[in-house]
Design brief:
There is one protein chain. The chain contains 1 helix and no strands. The longest helix is centred in the last third of the chain and has 53 residues. The two termini are about 45 Å apart.
Length: about 100
């Protein structure tokens, strides 16, 4: 009853073809190709210039990211604190119940 049942390999049905024979091929080295001529470097990219509006948008976006991340971290810390306090209250209640049970005997 508790012994595992090992499945048997199914036998092939129909016509079975023998495995194909693979013959090794010879490797012929390719003709030597001269290296390509160096390409002229592309012109340097223009520098990014920050306008007052762009700088203000960057500061506002950074502030928003910091506030959102801070709110998430504070809420996680608060959730851990509430969970710890509720576990502590449950432990005190269970301890008092067990102590009162031991006094009755």
């Amino acid at each position: 009853m508790f012994r595992p049942k090992i499945p048997t390999m199914p036998t092939p049905t129909g016509q079975v073809t023998p495995p194909a024979v693979v013959e090794p091929t010879t490797i012929v080295p390719a003709a030597q190709i001269p290296p390509p001529a160096p390409v002229a470097p592309a012109p340097a990219r223009p520098t990014v210039q920050l306008t007052p509006g762009t700088a203000l948008a960057l500061v506002g976006g950074g502030t928003a990211v910091v506030l959102v991340v801070g709110a998430v971290l504070v809420s996680m810390l608060l959730a851990v604190a509430i969970t710890g306090a509720s576990v502590a209250v449950c432990a005190v209640v269970l301890r008092s119940l067990l102590a009162s049970e031991a006094k009755r005997r």
